[in-house]
Amino acid sequence: MWDVLLDAAIDGAKIFPFIFLIYILMEIIEHAKSKENIERILSGPFAPTVAGVLGAVPECGFAVMCSKLYDKGLIKIGTLIAAFVSISDEGVIILLTDGAKVSDVILLIVIKIVYAVIAGTAINALLSKKDAVHVCPETDDCIECGEHHEKGFDKYFLHPLKHAVIILVYVVIINFALGAAIKYLIGEENIKELMDNSMALQPVIAPLVGLIPNCGSSIILSEAYLSGILSFSGLIAGLAANAGIGALILFRSKNTVKKAFMIIGLMYVLGAVLGYAVMGVAAIIG
Q1: Chain centre to alpha carbon of residue 171
Q2: How many CA atoms lie within 13 A of 165 on its CB side?
Q3: Chain centroid offset of residue 119 CA
Q4: What is the tens place of the pLDDT at every residue in 222-276?
Q5: How far apart are CA 73 and CA 247, in angstroms?
Q6: How far is Cα 128 from Cα 5, in angstroms, rounded to an integer?
């Protein structure tokens, strides 16, 4: 049990700098003089492209940053989806360090980026009228809690630090609970066995694993692929649906908890579709 708690604490430590930075950024945005320009940048047509490319960096902190930006209405849902689809959490690191072909890993990353950008751009276009970005130009209070701070040190350091610590505690507790459930209730080997016995259904089973908001899910998928249990189409389906700890943030806020279920469902569908598309192409080529 202590190893699960340690893993949860390490995961929290990894994302804490990103959480702290995003709260500082939110304060800067809220007190910026030209908020309309910021809105245009965050809601522009290239926002999903930027999110998709940056999401490919093997670090779950970016998913957390995007979740908070979406929570506060600073980016659109398509931009969030682009980041989530592109993110592979620790999966890419496991693949590269445990013997996967570099060409396969590069192909995985490229496919996920392209797919993420296309999906995110399409979703933003479809929901452009319902999902507008708003940087709250009418107030100088904190976006998160409405508090007002005059001093720069309080405004740009202590206040963001306070919010970041609250999120950190939340993430560690939930991540510990999920990690314990995977290890002691579900069992990693049981998950791998399920995928091994359902080769044709891997593109619909692997995204269910990927949706688990815990760093362990991407590790399970990557290890299953390296051991020959999971096909490339199953791997890419699972990792396309995986947003790591980022998904947890959506369920914490009352602003996004209802939409979180829609986003999770959309991530599952996108992962399954991509998996079967890759499976079909592989069948044609091979």
Answers
A1: 13
A2: 6
A3: 15
A4: 988 998 889 999 999 999 998 878 888 888 777 777 888 999 999 999 999 999 9
A5: 16
A6: 42
| Structure-token match 């904190």, residue found | 142
* 121: Cα within 13 Å, side-chain hemisphere: 11
Q: Are 259 and 250 within 8 A, CB to CB?
A: yes
Q: How far apart are CA 220 and CA 180, in angstroms?
A: 14
Structure tokens at 273: 């579709």
- In tens, the pLDDT along 16-71 reads 887 888 778 777 776 665 556 666 777 788 999 999 998 887 776 788 888 888 88
H-type alpha helices, the chain? 2-30, 35-43, 47-55, 61-71, 77-86, 91-97, 102-126, 152-153, 159-180, 188-196, 202-210, 215-226, 232-240, 246-252, 257-285
Structure tokens that stand for 78 in this block: 């398509």
Query: How many CA atoms, within 13 angstroms, populate the side-chain half-sphere of residue 255?
Result: 12
Q: pTM for this one?
A: 0.81
Q: Which two tokens stand for residue 223?
A: 């290890």
Q: How many CB atoms lie within 10 A of CB 127?
A: 13
Q: Estimate to the nearest angstrom the gap between the alpha carbon of 167 and the chain centroid.
A: 15
Domain ranges in the chain are 2-180+245-269
CA distance linking residue 55 with residue 220, whole number of Å: 20
